[in-house]
Specification:
Serine Threonine Protein Phosphatase 5, Tetratricopeptide repeat, mainly alpha, 9 helices, globular
Amino acid sequence: MRRVVVSILVLLAVPVHAAAPPHPAAARLQAGLDAYAGGRFVEARRTLLPLADEGSAIAETLCGVMAARGEGMARSPAIAAGWWLRAANRGYAPAQLALAKALAAGRGVPRDPGAAWMWARLAASAGNGTAAAATALADALERGFAVGERAKLEARRAAWRPWPM
Protein backbone atom coordinates (compact mmCIF):
# COMPACT_ATOMS: atom_id res chain seq x y z
CA MET A 1 0.00 0.00 0.00
CA ARG A 2 2.86 2.41 0.82
CA ARG A 3 4.33 1.86 -2.63
CA VAL A 4 0.98 2.71 -4.21
CA VAL A 5 0.72 5.95 -2.21
CA VAL A 6 4.27 6.95 -3.09
CA SER A 7 3.81 6.05 -6.76
CA ILE A 8 0.62 8.09 -7.03
CA LEU A 9 2.20 11.11 -5.33
CA VAL A 10 5.21 10.98 -7.64
CA LEU A 11 3.26 10.42 -10.84
CA LEU A 12 0.85 13.24 -10.11
CA ALA A 13 3.36 15.90 -9.24
CA VAL A 14 6.90 15.29 -10.37
CA PRO A 15 7.51 16.44 -13.95
CA VAL A 16 9.80 14.34 -16.08
CA HIS A 17 12.85 16.17 -17.48
CA ALA A 18 15.06 13.77 -19.38
CA ALA A 19 17.94 16.13 -20.09
CA ALA A 20 17.98 18.30 -16.97
CA PRO A 21 19.97 17.19 -13.93
CA PRO A 22 17.80 16.65 -10.86
CA HIS A 23 17.23 19.67 -8.65
CA PRO A 24 18.67 19.22 -5.13
CA ALA A 25 15.18 19.43 -3.64
CA ALA A 26 14.00 16.76 -6.09
CA ALA A 27 16.81 14.49 -4.98
CA ARG A 28 15.89 15.05 -1.32
CA LEU A 29 12.24 14.41 -2.12
CA GLN A 30 13.12 11.18 -3.89
CA ALA A 31 15.21 10.11 -0.89
CA GLY A 32 12.24 10.74 1.38
CA LEU A 33 9.88 8.85 -0.93
CA ASP A 34 12.32 5.94 -1.11
CA ALA A 35 12.62 5.84 2.68
CA TYR A 36 8.82 5.87 2.99
CA ALA A 37 8.38 3.13 0.39
CA GLY A 38 10.99 1.08 2.25
CA GLY A 39 9.10 1.42 5.53
CA ARG A 40 11.82 3.62 7.10
CA PHE A 41 9.31 6.12 8.43
CA VAL A 42 11.52 8.00 10.88
CA GLU A 43 14.07 8.57 8.10
CA ALA A 44 11.30 9.54 5.67
CA ARG A 45 9.86 12.04 8.15
CA ARG A 46 13.29 13.51 8.88
CA THR A 47 13.90 13.94 5.14
CA LEU A 48 10.44 15.20 4.19
CA LEU A 49 9.79 17.68 7.02
CA PRO A 50 12.30 20.29 5.79
CA LEU A 51 10.87 20.00 2.29
CA ALA A 52 7.35 20.40 3.64
CA ASP A 53 8.48 23.46 5.59
CA GLU A 54 9.87 24.84 2.30
CA GLY A 55 6.46 24.41 0.64
CA SER A 56 6.68 21.08 -1.20
CA ALA A 57 3.06 19.96 -1.61
CA ILE A 58 4.16 16.36 -2.10
CA ALA A 59 6.18 16.40 1.13
CA GLU A 60 3.32 18.11 2.98
CA THR A 61 0.87 15.50 1.74
CA LEU A 62 3.08 12.58 2.71
CA CYS A 63 3.76 14.13 6.12
CA GLY A 64 -0.02 14.19 6.51
CA VAL A 65 -0.29 10.55 5.49
CA MET A 66 2.39 9.57 8.03
CA ALA A 67 0.66 11.56 10.78
CA ALA A 68 -2.72 10.00 9.96
CA ARG A 69 -1.27 6.50 10.06
CA GLY A 70 1.17 7.02 12.92
CA GLU A 71 4.17 6.22 10.74
CA GLY A 72 7.39 7.65 12.17
CA MET A 73 5.46 9.58 14.80
CA ALA A 74 2.46 9.25 17.08
CA ARG A 75 -0.81 9.00 15.16
CA SER A 76 -2.44 12.43 14.92
CA PRO A 77 -5.40 13.08 12.62
CA ALA A 78 -5.27 16.80 13.49
CA ILE A 79 -1.65 17.15 12.41
CA ALA A 80 -2.47 15.16 9.27
CA ALA A 81 -5.31 17.53 8.40
CA GLY A 82 -3.02 20.52 8.93
CA TRP A 83 -0.45 19.18 6.47
CA TRP A 84 -3.16 18.34 3.95
CA LEU A 85 -4.64 21.83 4.28
CA ARG A 86 -1.27 23.38 3.44
CA ALA A 87 -0.79 21.19 0.38
CA ALA A 88 -4.44 21.57 -0.66
CA ASN A 89 -4.05 25.34 -0.59
CA ARG A 90 -1.17 24.94 -3.03
CA GLY A 91 -3.57 23.25 -5.44
CA TYR A 92 -2.28 19.70 -4.96
CA ALA A 93 -5.22 17.41 -5.79
CA PRO A 94 -4.19 14.36 -3.67
CA ALA A 95 -4.04 16.62 -0.60
CA GLN A 96 -7.36 18.23 -1.52
CA LEU A 97 -8.96 14.80 -1.62
CA ALA A 98 -7.33 13.70 1.65
CA LEU A 99 -8.53 16.91 3.33
CA ALA A 100 -12.03 16.46 1.89
CA LYS A 101 -12.18 12.96 3.35
CA ALA A 102 -11.00 14.22 6.75
CA LEU A 103 -13.60 17.02 6.74
CA ALA A 104 -16.37 14.65 5.63
CA ALA A 105 -15.60 12.21 8.44
CA GLY A 106 -14.55 14.73 11.10
CA ARG A 107 -11.12 13.11 11.47
CA GLY A 108 -8.75 15.59 13.08
CA VAL A 109 -11.02 18.50 12.21
CA PRO A 110 -14.65 19.34 12.91
CA ARG A 111 -16.99 17.59 10.48
CA ASP A 112 -17.84 20.05 7.68
CA PRO A 113 -19.65 18.53 4.68
CA GLY A 114 -19.68 21.86 2.82
CA ALA A 115 -15.93 22.37 3.06
CA ALA A 116 -15.42 18.69 2.26
CA TRP A 117 -17.54 19.11 -0.88
CA MET A 118 -15.54 22.17 -1.96
CA TRP A 119 -12.17 20.43 -1.56
CA ALA A 120 -13.47 17.29 -3.27
CA ARG A 121 -14.73 19.33 -6.24
CA LEU A 122 -11.39 21.11 -6.48
CA ALA A 123 -9.58 17.76 -6.47
CA ALA A 124 -11.98 16.40 -9.10
CA SER A 125 -11.31 19.36 -11.38
CA ALA A 126 -7.62 18.44 -11.55
CA GLY A 127 -8.60 15.60 -13.88
CA ASN A 128 -5.86 13.25 -12.68
CA GLY A 129 -5.84 10.05 -10.65
CA THR A 130 -7.87 11.62 -7.85
CA ALA A 131 -10.78 12.77 -10.02
CA ALA A 132 -13.00 9.68 -9.79
CA ALA A 133 -12.73 9.31 -6.01
CA ALA A 134 -13.13 13.06 -5.49
CA THR A 135 -16.22 13.20 -7.72
CA ALA A 136 -17.79 10.25 -5.90
CA LEU A 137 -17.19 11.88 -2.52
CA ALA A 138 -18.56 15.25 -3.66
CA ASP A 139 -21.65 13.62 -5.17
CA ALA A 140 -22.31 11.68 -1.95
CA LEU A 141 -21.94 14.82 0.17
CA GLU A 142 -24.13 16.91 -2.11
CA ARG A 143 -27.13 14.64 -1.53
CA GLY A 144 -27.30 15.93 2.05
CA PHE A 145 -27.33 19.63 1.21
CA ALA A 146 -30.32 21.89 1.72
CA VAL A 147 -31.80 23.73 -1.25
CA GLY A 148 -29.51 26.58 -2.27
CA GLU A 149 -26.53 25.35 -0.25
CA ARG A 150 -24.78 23.93 -3.31
CA ALA A 151 -24.92 27.31 -5.09
CA LYS A 152 -23.24 29.02 -2.13
CA LEU A 153 -20.56 26.34 -2.00
CA GLU A 154 -20.03 26.54 -5.75
CA ALA A 155 -19.43 30.29 -5.45
CA ARG A 156 -16.90 29.60 -2.69
CA ARG A 157 -15.18 26.96 -4.85
CA ALA A 158 -15.10 29.30 -7.85
CA ALA A 159 -13.51 32.05 -5.76
CA TRP A 160 -10.76 29.79 -4.39
CA ARG A 161 -7.22 30.44 -5.64
CA PRO A 162 -4.08 28.44 -4.82
CA TRP A 163 -1.37 29.93 -2.70
CA PRO A 164 1.42 31.48 -4.72
CA MET A 165 4.43 29.22 -5.06
